UniProtKB/TrEMBL annotation:
It holds the Pfam family GARS_N. It comes from Clostridium scindens (strain ATCC 35704 / DSM 5676 / VPI 13733 / 19). The keyword Manganese applies. SUPFAM superfamilies: Glutathione synthetase ATP-binding domain-like (SSF56059), PreATP-grasp domain (SSF52440), Rudiment single hybrid motif (SSF51246). It comes from the Bacteria. SMART domains: GARS_A, GARS_C. It catalyses: 5-phospho-beta-D-ribosylamine + glycine + ATP = N(1)-(5-phospho-beta-D-ribosyl)glycinamide + ADP + phosphate + H(+). This is Phosphoribosylamine--glycine ligase.
Length: 423
């Protein structure tokens, strides 16, 4: 098979790593890719939102399967365009990707089908949002309705902060058109858990659990980011939690989307909050999480192509999804100043060390080639992932491996997975 992966981050590098292991695949392409993905794939400088060029490229290269990794092209309808051209594609169609594309839609869906989530209200009028805040309980959460690179969520401790948040999202349009509508919801407390799942429109098979660290600084301080590191599995995701979510969240979501005439095929990411009242859905994503994919996919025993094809063909019920009985931790190496301002084009050294050690991975997020050298090309530069027999060992291994890689302005959190010490 010839496979095309659409995207350029650590998630797509993790997908490429799995695709390269499949005996069904003999050629991989990626648009636009990065310096790490280039180890497995022939990269082409086509942007993820250049749908016509992607379709033409897939036709020219006689691609058998396209895996769309990123949220923007999924929400924009790339899968629809590929299918219309007779090209097999993995990911939800546009009418199903709205599960991530509109937080107002997903909240209304959960309310309609009794899927547990935080209490909320939707607003398109900033004045009505401000009036609502006058009677609200604090802290409170403001969410831009649309896609905002994982940064469109503001946690406000006071009325003053919340007023400023409404201004930021709806009036100043910091997140662009994503802020045309806004969700205001109750602040939930508890442990966060991420559960990725494969879906074929009817059947859902969940993957092993994980937990992300969103804030830029140690101790969960600083600005929200696309993710500063992950661990898998989560010790807080117990059998009882899993049984509850199987009954009231996972299948219920798949059935709800089908009932709405929006059958979902692809990956649903469930962001869960384990509250005192039980698990509740924080958010849905319509694709693999990043950096969650970087700790979940290396632990998957299945051939990813077999699972992906089962999702497309509606035969996922015949797949036995299996994961290694171990643990993995990913520490993101970022450029200092992320997620605000940071330098690019800084040379990276030490990447060859990962080829010498089994169970260690370096997934590229923001990298590119400058001649023969690999240099930084983004805020999140690399995801250093390591396995271990348990979370403690995986964490020690991952942090040891972060020392193999050097570039100017290298920045990382030092407490990824620290919560596991409290489990």
């Amino acid at each position: 098979m010839k496979v095309l992966i659409v995207g350029s981050g650590g998630r797509e590098h993790a997908i490429a790593y799995c695709v390269a292991k499949s005996e069904k695949v003999d050629k991989i392409y990626c648009t636009p890719g990065n310096a790490g993905i280039a180890e497995y794939a022939q990269c082409a400088p086509i942007g993820a939102m250049e749908f016509d060029k992607i379709v033409a490229f897939a036709r020219e290269k006689e691609i058998d399967l396209v895996i769309v990794g990123m949220d923007d092209p999924l929400v924009g309808g790339l899968v629809d365009e590929l299918e219309a051209a007779g090209i097999r594609a993995f990911g939800p169609r546009k009418n199903a990707a709205i599960l991530e594309g509109s937080k107002a839609f997903s909240k209304d869906l959960m309310k309609k089908y009794n899927i547990p989530t935080a209490a909320y209200e939707n607003f398109t009028d900033p004045q009505k949002a401000l009036a609502y805040l006058e009677t609200a309980k604090f802290p409170i959460v403001l969410k831009a309705d649309g896609l905002a690179l994982g940064k469109g969520v503001l946690i406000c401790s006071t009325l003053e902060e919340a007023r400023e948040g409404v201004k930021t999202i709806m009036l100043d349009k910091k997140f662009g058109s994503a802020g045309n509508e806004m969700v205001i919801e109750e602040f939930m407390t508890g442990r966060e858990v991420s559960v990725l799942s494969f879906v074929d429109g009817n059947t859902i098979k969940t993957m092993t659990s994980a937990q992300d660290h969103k804030r830029a600084g140690d101790g969960d301080t600083g600005l929200n980011t696309g993710g500063m590191g992950t661990f898998s599995p989560s010790p807080f995701y117990t059998k009882e939690v899993e049984e509850f979510c199987n009954k009231y969240v996972y299948q219920a979501t798949v059935d709800a989307m089908k009932a709405e005439g929006r059958p979902f095929k692809g990956v649903i990411f469930f962001g869960l909050m384990l509250t005192e009242e039980g698990p509740k859905v924080l958010e849905y994503n319509a694709r693999f999480g990043d950096p969650e994919a970087q700790v979940v996919l290396p632990r998957m025993k299945n051939d990813i192509i077999e699972v992906v094809e089962a999702c497309i063909d509606g035969t996922l019920d015949q797949v036995d999804l299996e994961f290694e009985d171990n643990a993995a931790v990913c520490v993101v190496l970022a450029s200092d100043g992320y997620p605000v301002e940071y330098k690019k084009g800084l040379p990276i050294s030490g990447l060859e060390e990962f080829e010498k050690h089994e169970g260690y991975y370096c997934f590229h997020a923001g990298t590119k080639f400058d001649g023969d050298r690999i240099v930084t090309n983004g805020g999140r530069v690399l995801g250093v992932t390591a396995k271990g027999k348990d979370l403690k060992e995986a964490r020690e291994n991952a942090y040891a491996a972060t020392q193999w890689v050097q570039f100017d302005n290298k920045y990382m959190r030092h407490d990824i997975g620290k919560a596991i010490d409290e489990a």
